[in-house]
Amino acid sequence: MIVEVVTGADERPQARVVDVDDLSKLFLALGEVTDEEAAEVLERSGLGRLTDGGTAVLDLAAVRAAAEPRATAPDWQSRWDELVTHARTQGRLSEDGAGLQVPVQSAAGA
């Protein structure tokens, strides 16, 4: 699954969740936007926040709410739970368990 920040049709950056059935990975992909634009759009959308140029913290509840209604895999919920459990074992969850630290990549490489 990918949370991406890209320039929308009206040339304003927008955040969206794509590849919702691929729960083997979760990362933030940035298109042709500045870090400042990406940070603003992520926070405004409620999907997360940038911590630096290479890392972001995504809000698990918001990402799930955006992805789950569009998921088509019958085992999506159990695979989501596995993704969160795996992140917890790797120490990538925030202290309160609500955020997940993910890498930031160029959308061109997504």
UniProtKB/TrEMBL annotation:
It comes from the Bacteria. Residues 91-110 are annotated as: Disordered. This is Uncharacterized protein.
